[in-house]
């Protein structure tokens, strides 16, 4: 299984449309400053600096290649568009020529083949532009960034935090990982963030279906240890029947969240309510309003937030127009991370 | 049993269940208001416990701030004996302002500012102030929920039947807020 994933990853890498030369790699190495290994935190206590270095240089060398060859994306998309036009015209011409009889399924396949290069190019460049944006955000804030899928990290995280990471039954991995810290109120707040992707495959007789979910997680290291472990989940009709209900003093908070924890309610409720002081509740509600739904895990040494979707869904950067990153995209990610760091550090500050 | 009687009994049953549900909901909200008040109370007590330590530390360094310190002690003692919500809110506002002013004037005393105890107390008090503000907002939010329930149809009928009264917000009146003017 692991080998299969590696093969797929290598395949995607090799089929990438941007193939940097050695000089691009050298320039990328020069621009990628040496990362200090002391200023970051990871809940698994392991950061693969070598992998991060390699991956970032890989992306940056593509950027340098594109800077040297700014017309390359335009040329590639023009060829792909031409293939699509010729394909579409071809299908129509064959359709009008009644002497040639082609199966409708074959036409559809023909059209799909014609549309494939264009789709591939758009996806490849969109993904590259997002990675470049995130690397630049990481560089300007002194964060670490790893764009590629990390299966081992998911495995380690799922052992430590099953409430958050033991989901799905296939293709679980983390990607788009950020490590960083921010100094606030004379205290360093260390965070680790990423995208957790998982697939749920269901088999019903001969029919099988699969759905892939993308979730954004953000964890912050606590400066003090808390004695309890619990999960705050978005309140729903179903959660009313499955969770052991605890009420805080805020009606608004109780309407939004329900609790998930091990052990008896009588033993845990006091400890949980103690942690969720009024200021913490307010901050959580504030974050929930901003993110439209989230789950939170409070553990001994960190708090992990889980949101649906990506950090950046659609980028405004268009590498086909120019090899420049749209400032709005950078600001979007920076602001999103800033808000998360700000609110989560406040939550950490007020935990007892 | 006739059909009409059956229907009537069903309607009476539904109305009865509705009354029970609304009554219980009002009781739950009332308890939430009480519970959130105790949240404020805990934070106020915490602040009142910290004030004597702060006064003791400041006394040794800022001898010229005797009046300010006396005012803080006076307000603290006053707040401990009050029972009326509006009076407590007014005193708490004055106490918060006095503490803020004290921390502002502490800038003039470098030795005090550098004192480890003072720094810890300042940080703890500012944290407690924020907790009080948050508790207060939660309490007032709960009061809004409760009062809305009492005023809106059909729960207003049940509220009247069982003499539920509107809860007071934890805030000083506008006139009282204007009175908070402490000069140094």
Helix and strand succession of chain B?
A: HHHHHHH
Helical content band of chain B: over 70%
Mean of residue pLDDT values of chain A = 83
Oligomer: heterodimer
- Most extensive chain contact? A-B, 13 and 19 residues
The tally of strands of chain B reads 0
H/I helix tally of chain B: 7
**Strand coverage percent of chain B:** under 5%
Count of DSSP H/I helices of chain A: 12
**Helix/strand class of chain A:** alpha+beta
Q: Rg of chain B, please?
A: 24 Å
Percentage of helical residues of chain A? 40-55%
Low-pLDDT residue spans of chain B: 179-184
**SSE arrangement of chain A, N to C:** HHHHHEHHEEEEHHEHHEEH
Explain what you see:
The complex is a heterodimer of chains A (352) and B (184). Chain A is an alpha+beta fold and 352 residues long. Chain A is 51% helix and 20% strand. In chain A, strands 1-2-3-4-8-7-5-6 form an eight-stranded antiparallel sheet, with helices on both faces. In chain A, a hairpin with a 2-residue loop joins β2 and β3 (187-204). The longest helix of chain A is centred in the middle third of the chain and has 38 residues, at 104-141. The mean pLDDT of chain A is 83. By secondary structure, chain B is mainly alpha-helical. In chain B, α2 runs antiparallel to α3 (85-105). The radius of gyration of chain B is 24 Å and the shape is rod-shaped. Chain B starts with a helix and ends in a 5-residue tail after the last helix. Classes of the chains: A alpha+beta (352), B mainly alpha (184). Chain A binds chain B through residues 247, 249-253, 277-279, 281-282, 349-350, and chain B through 29, 32, 35-36, 38-39, 43, 127, 130-131, 133-135, 137-139, 141-142, 145.
Q: What brief labels describe this structure?
A:
heterodimer; A: 352 residues; alpha+beta; eight-stranded antiparallel beta sheet; 51% helix; B: 184 residues; mainly alpha; 7 helices; rod-shaped
């Amino acid at each position: 299984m692991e080998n299969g994933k590696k093969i797929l990853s290598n395949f995607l890498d090799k089929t990438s449309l941007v193939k940097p030369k050695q000089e691009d790699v050298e320039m990328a190495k020069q621009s990628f400053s040496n990362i200090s290994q002391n200023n970051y935190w990871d809940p698994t206590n392991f950061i693969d600096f070598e992998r991060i270095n390699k991956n970032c240089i890989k992306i940056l060398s593509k950027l340098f290649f594109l800077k040297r060859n700014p017309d390359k994306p335009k040329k590639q998309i023009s060829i792909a568009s031409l293939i699509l036009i010729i394909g579409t015209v071809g299908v129509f011409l064959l359709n009008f020529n009644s002497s040639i009889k082609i199966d409708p399924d074959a036409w559809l396949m023909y059209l799909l083949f014609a549309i494939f290069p264009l789709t591939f190019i758009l996806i490849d460049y969109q993904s590259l532009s997002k990675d470049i944006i995130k690397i630049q955000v990481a560089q300007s804030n002194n964060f670490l960034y790893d764009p590629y899928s990390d299966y081992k990290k998911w495995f380690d995280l799922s052992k430590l935090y099953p409430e958050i990471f033991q989901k799905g039954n296939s293709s679980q991995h983390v990607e788009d990982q950020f490590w960083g810290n921010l100094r606030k109120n004379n205290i360093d707040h260390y965070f680790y963030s990423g995208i957790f992707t998982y697939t749920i495959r269901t088999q019903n007789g001969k029919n099988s279906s699969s759905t892939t979910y993308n979730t954004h997680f953000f964890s912050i290291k606590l400066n003090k240890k808390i004695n309890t472990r619990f999960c705050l989940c978005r309140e729903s009709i179903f959660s009313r029947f499955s969770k052991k209900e605890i009420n805080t003093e805020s009606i608004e908070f109780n309407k939004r969240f329900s609790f998930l924890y091990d052990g008896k309610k009588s033993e845990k409720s006091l400890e949980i309510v103690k942690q969720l002081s009024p200021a913490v509740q307010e901050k959580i509600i504030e974050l929930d309003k901003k993110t439209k739904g989230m789950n939170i895990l409070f553990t001994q040494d960190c708090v992990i937030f889980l949101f649906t979707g990506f950090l950046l869904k659609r980028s405004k950067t268009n590498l086909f127009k120019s090899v420049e990153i749209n400032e709005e995209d950078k600001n979007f990610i920076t602001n999103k991370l800033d808000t998360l760091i700000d609110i989560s550090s406040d939550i950490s500050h007020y935990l007892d | 049993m006739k059909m009409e009687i059956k229907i009537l009994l069903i309607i009476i049953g539904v109305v009865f269940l509705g009354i029970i549900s609304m009554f219980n909901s009002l009781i739950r909200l009332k308890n939430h208001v009480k519970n959130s008040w105790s949240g404020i109370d805990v934070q106020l007590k915490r602040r009142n416990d910290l004030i004597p330590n702060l006064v003791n530390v400041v006394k040794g360094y800022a001898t010229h701030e005797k009046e300010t310190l006396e005012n803080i002690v006076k307000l603290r003692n006053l707040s401990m004996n009050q029972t009326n919500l509006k009076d407590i809110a007014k005193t708490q506002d004055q106490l918060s302002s006095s503490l803020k002013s004290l921390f502002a004037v502490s800038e003039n005393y470098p030795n005090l500012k550098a004192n480890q105890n003072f720094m810890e107390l300042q940080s703890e008090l500012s944290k407690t102030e924020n907790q009080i503000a948050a508790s207060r907002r939660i309490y007032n939010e709960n009061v809004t929920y409760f009062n809305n329930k009492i005023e809106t149809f059909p729960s207003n009928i049940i509220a009247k039947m069982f003499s539920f009264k509107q809860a007071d917000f934890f805030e000083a009146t506008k006139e009282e807020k204007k009175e908070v003017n402490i000069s140094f």
